[in-house]
Write a structure and sequence with these properties.
Number of helices: 30
Low-confidence stretches: 1-27, 32-85
């Protein structure tokens, strides 16, 4: 059996299934992309275009000068006189029509990447939620969140074509969503969100985020259409260097050279930050003025350095990735400039986070297996995965699966392997007393494969982990307190976290009677009636059927680096709210993930 060769980049865009008050943490504006002192203003910016409430630019650029000999151009006011000498200003709307015809212009009333047919939410998914409230939530959210399935749902909400909420400019709302996507590690979707807004409707905030998304995706050329206006709006020195790079990438190397020299003289950049920009310029000049990048004295990896290294093909030493936030690994997993072997370790982390799907991860290792690079350490994983899918018998496939599951030593890596093997696990026919039933069921459900997992229902031991996971996804008979007590008696975790999360998940999914739910909550000290500003907000959004608002608030409730910081009360509120707005499939997967990862 040959694994698919489809690209991981396409898989990255697949949207898939989708105790604390609201935190005051996160970034208010896009973080600096450069080292200290690099983004200090060179000079006060020129008059910046401002956005009207609808996002339209109030004025158009000045009219270019006409060829010599045509003396009818007003030198002082830039207008074109008529035959009688009366100045007739050119209507900015006419110029805009030449740049982009009216039928091709996109409204800011509804902006997004995917519509309902492609897996997006309903255009009214944010309902009548106040735009300033949503903007604050997005900006303060400390991403990424610990849950794979909450991340998948949040990506769906942010990428959907939705109506712009009241009190927000459409371009600003798109920028807030793109900025959060960048911080989540969703570089490909973030860039697509930026590109969903017409350049002549950019706001200052969108210029900021456009640069961030371009660097995160390793493609600074995406800002070239707006680099001139970007320099007017932003005083960050990145735009000065972008001007030089874009001249080269646009096929005008004669302009790029003087601009990069001027940037060097002005002190806009120095050291490796300038050298990387020069390397990009050289790339656009077909190798002219090639630059060698040395990383020996570089102590940390910034977004600027990452983005330009990816764009120019400069190899970043692996130790430097440890100096950057984990999001950079997710960006790296989606980079089309790296080989599959180079992306493999990052891709596993990205799959555990929900940035990559099971299918995308399998495709990547399938390509490694097809290439057969004997020098690649990842080739062993690819070969084991092939055996797990197409081994000669059940025992061979199970041995391969155990090898893949047992190799990682850290929890995130172990969960990534469950995601990697999800479809391979479906090839194992259910049988009684299977020693691997717990991990087989957990693997299938990590990718949302409920139907094949439920085939094990009559073959798992009552009270086992596999039984608990299936109890969360089975809509058949209700779960009794006796069932949970059996699971509790067999639980091996000393803290009892798995039992508490199981009860919270079952309660949120309404899978137990009210009396059993209340008695178990008392016995386990779970306060299902907990109330604070966050619980009131998510309950109100659920009652109003605001699916996207609920997705966003679910992520806000998980402001913690790992599942150990998520309380059962929080899980109950999230699962219950998602079920109320019709996202019960996602609610089940979050409950399953909670029990699996603790």
């Amino acid at each position: 059996m040959r694994l698919s060769r489809n690209s991981v980049g396409a898989g990255a865009l697949a949207l898939g299934l989708i105790v604390v008050g609201i935190p005051a943490i996160g970034q208010d504006t896009p973080e600096s992309i450069l080292p200290p002192g690099f983004n200090e203003p060179v000079a006060a910016p020129t008059s910046a275009p401002t956005a009207s409430p609808t996002g339209d630019r109030p004025t158009a650029p000045g009219v270019p000068g006409l060829p010599a000999g045509l003396a009818t151009v007003g030198e002082e006011d830039g207008t074109v006189p008529d035959d009688a000498g009366t100045p007739l200003p050119i209507d900015p709307r006419l110029i805009a029509e030449y740049n982009m015809p009216s039928y091709a212009r996109r409204s800011l009333a509804m902006v997004g990447v995917v519509g309902v047919p492609e897996g997006g939410l309903n255009p009214a998914a944010f309902g009548n939620a106040d735009g300033r409230f949503l903007q604050t939530l997005m900006r303060k959210l400390n991403a990424p969140v610990p849950s794979r399935w909450v991340s998948i749902g949040l990506r769906q909400a942010l990428a959907s074509k939705v109506k712009t909420p009241a009190r927000l400019n459409g371009a600003d709302f798109a920028a807030e969503r793109a900025w959060l996507l960048v911080r989540m590690g969703e570089s490909v979707v973030a860039r697509a969100m930026v590109e969903a807004v017409d350049p002549d409707r950019y706001t200052p905030k969108m210029y900021q985020v456009a640069m961030q998304a371009a660097l995160a995706s390793g493609d600074p050329a995406t800002v070239c259409p707006v680099v001139a206006d970007g320099r007017k709006v932003s005083s960050e020195r990145a735009w000065i260097l972008a001007d030089a790079m874009c001249a080269s990438l646009s096929g005008v190397p004669g302009e790029a050279g003087p601009k990069i020299k001027a940037a060097r003289r002005s002190g806009a950049a120095r050291g490796i930050d300038l050298l990387l920009a020069e390397k990009v310029v050289g790339t656009g000049s077909k190798g002219q003025g090639a630059v060698t990048i040395e990383w020996d004295n570089v102590d940390r990896l910034t977004v600027w350095r990452y983005g330009l290294a990816m764009a120019s093909g400069a190899e970043i030493p692996m130790p430097l990735y440890a100096t950057a936030a984990v999001q950079v690994q997710y960006w790296r997993a989606q980079s089309p400039r790296l080989t599959e072997s180079a992306r493999a370790s990052s891709a596993e982390l990205a799959a555990a986070q929900g940035v990559l799907s099971n299918a995308a991860l399998v495709d990547l290792f399938g390509k490694i297996d097809s290439d057969g690079d004997q020098g690649a350490a990842e080739l062993g994983i690819a070969r084991d995965l092939r055996t797990a899918y197409a081994g000669p018998d059940r025992d061979a496939r199970l041995v391969a699966l155990r090898t893949l599951w047992d190799e990682p030593k850290r929890p995130r890596g172990q969960y990534a392997r469950l995601v990697l093997t999800a479809r391979a696990a479906t090839t194992i026919a259910p049988y009684k007393d299977a020693p691997d039933a717990d991990r087989l069921v957990a693997s299938m459900l990590s990718a949302g494969l409920e139907e094949p997992a439920l085939r094990w229902k009559g073959n798992v031991v009552r009270g086992s982990n596999a039984w608990g996971l299936l109890a969360l996804v089975d809509n058949g008979d209700p779960v009794s307190r006796g069932d949970v007590d059996t699971y509790r008696s067999r639980a091996v975790d000393i803290s009892g976290s798995k039992v508490k999360m199981l009860v919270a998940g079952l309660a949120g999914l309404n899978r137990m009677s009210a009396s059993d739910t209340a008695s178990l909550a008392r016995a386990l000290s779970i306060n299902l009636a907990m109330e604070n500003s966050w619980t009131r907000a998510i309950q109100r959004a659920a009652q109003r059927r605001q699916t996207a608002t609920v997705q966003l608030l679910a992520a806000v409730g998980m402001q913690t680096p790992n599942w150990g910081g998520v309380s059962p009360e929080t899980l109950f509120q999230i699962v219950s709210a998602l079920r109320q707005v019709g996202l019960e499939g996602q609610a089940r997967m979050i409950a399953v993930e909670a029990v699996t990862r603790l």
